[in-house]
Amino acid sequence: IDYVTAGESHGPQLTGILSGIPAGLKLDLAAINAELTQRQGGFGRGNRQKIEHDVIQVVGGVRHGTTLGSPLALIIQNHDYQHWSKIMNPTTPNTSSNNLRQITRPRPGHADLVGGMKYGHRDLRNVLERSSARETAMRVAIGNICQQLLAQLDIHLVGYVQQIGPHQITNDPNLSVQQIRELIQQNDLRILDQNSVASLHELILQTKRNGDTLGGVVNVLAENVPAGLGSYTSWNTKLDGRLAGAVMGINAIKGVEIGAGFTAAQKYGSQIMDEIAWHPDSGWTRLSNHLGGFEGGMTNGMPIVLKAAMKPLPTLYRPLRSVDIKTKIAQKAQVERSDTTAIVPAAIVVENVVAIEIAKVITETFASSNLNRLKQELASYREELRKY
Ligand code: EPS
C-alpha cells in the first residue's frame, strides 16, 4: 500500500491515489463519508467547516463497488473554492486582480516563513495552502479504506482525545475498541469522561475569547493485531519506528509515544517488561502491556497503544510578533480564519494514519493481490503462531 495526496486548501479539490489495496474489497462509501463528517466536527472548530461538506468520489480502481487491485483514484471537492476561484485558479495568469489576499507577515509556529524561504515564494499563501490541515481530509478517506480492509481481517482500532491543553481526561486502560467507540460518540470532544465535557467546552470558549489556541494529546488503541508485524532485523523495518514517522507526519504533531513511552524511562526494568504467559487455547500472551504491543520493533500480539501530542494551532486571533517579508518591518503576524482547537479531528487523523501503516505492513507481509487469499494467509499465520 502506498498513497499520495495533492490539492490546496482553497483550490478546486483534494486528490488522492491509493495503491496496493487487494482486489475484492467491497467499499462502503457511506462509512468513508461518515468518517469525513466526524473529522469536520468537534467542539472548537472555526467557520470553514460550515462551508465544507466532505464527500468522497471514487473515480478509479473500483468497479460496481468492489476494488479491482488497481490504484484507487479519490476526490474530495473544496466547496470554499467558489469563493476563491479567481485567487486560487490553477491556470489563469497571475494579474493584480486575481493576486489578492497575499500573506507577507508569517505566523510564528506555522510553515509560512521557512516554506517561503525554501521555495522562493513571495506570497506566503503559496505555502499556507498546502501546509493547511485541510489535506488530512484525504488521509482520513484513505485511512478509512484501510480500516475497511483491516476490519475484514478482524483488526479494529480507534483514536480518541486524552488531553486538551492542560486538562487530562480520565481514562480506563481496560476498555475495548468497541466500548471506546460507543463512549466517544456521546460527546463532541471524542473523550471517554462525559463529566469533563462542560468544563472543557468552557476552557475552549475562554481560549477563543482570548484569541488563543489549544493543543492536546490523542490515544490510539488497535486490537487483534497479529504478532510479528515489522521486524527487528533492520532499523527501517521496525514497525514502531514507521508508526512514529507516519504520525509525526501529521500537521502539528510534536511527540509520539508507544505504550508507557517517556514514563518508562523513570521506571525499573522489572516494572515495565510485560511478563510472558501461554494458554493452550489462546497461545502466547503478556501479563501486562506497558510496551504498547511492541517488542523488538515487532508487534507482539498485545493491543497497540500509541499517544500523539499536538501543539496548539499557530494561527492566533491575537497575533504574535513577526516581520513583514517585503518591508522587513516588525509587525504582528497575519490573522487568518482558523480553529481554536483541532484536537478532535487530530484524533481521527491519527487513528487513520495508524490504520494506513498497519494495512501497509500487512499487505507487505502476506500475499495481498486478492482479499480472500490475504484472509486465508493471515488466518493460517495466526493459527501457526497460536501453536508455536
Ligand atoms: C486551517 C485553517 C482553517 C481550517 C482548516 C485548516 O481553514 P480556513 O483557513 O479555510 O478557515 O478550517 O481545516 C480545514 C479546512 C479542514 O478541512 O480541516 C489551517 O490553516 O491549517
From TrEMBL:
Low complexity composition-biased segments: 90-99
Disordered, as annotated region: 90-110
Keyword Lyase: yes
Residues that hold FMN according to the record: 130-132, 251-252, 296, 311-315, 337
Superkingdom classification of source: Bacteria
Catalytic activity: 5-O-(1-carboxyvinyl)-3-phosphoshikimate = chorismate + phosphate
Keywords annotated in UniProt: Amino-acid biosynthesis, Aromatic amino acid biosynthesis, FAD, Flavoprotein, FMN, Lyase, NADP
Signal peptide: none
UniProt binding sites for NADP(+): 39, 45
Listed GO biological process terms: amino acid biosynthetic process; aromatic amino acid family biosynthetic process; chorismate biosynthetic process
EC identifiers of the protein: 4.2.3.5
PROSITE patterns, alphabetized: CHORISMATE_SYNTHASE_1
InterPro entries given in the database record: Chorismate_synth, Chorismate_synth_AroC_sf, Chorismate_synthase_CS
Assigned GO CC terms: cytosol
Cofactor(s) demanded: FMNH2
Cofactor: how bound: Reduced FMN (FMNH(2)).
GO molecular function terms listed in the Swiss-Prot or TrEMBL record: chorismate synthase activity; FMN binding
Pathway listed: Metabolic intermediate biosynthesis; chorismate biosynthesis; chorismate from D-erythrose 4-phosphate and phosphoenolpyruvate: step 7/7
Key word Chaperone present: no
Pfam families xref list: Chorismate_synt (PF01264)
Family the UniProt entry places it in: Belongs to the chorismate synthase family.
Free-text function comment from the UniProt entry: This reaction introduces a second double bond into the aromatic ring system.
Subunit structure: Homotetramer.
HAMAP family membership: Chorismate_synth
Name of the featured protein: Chorismate synthase
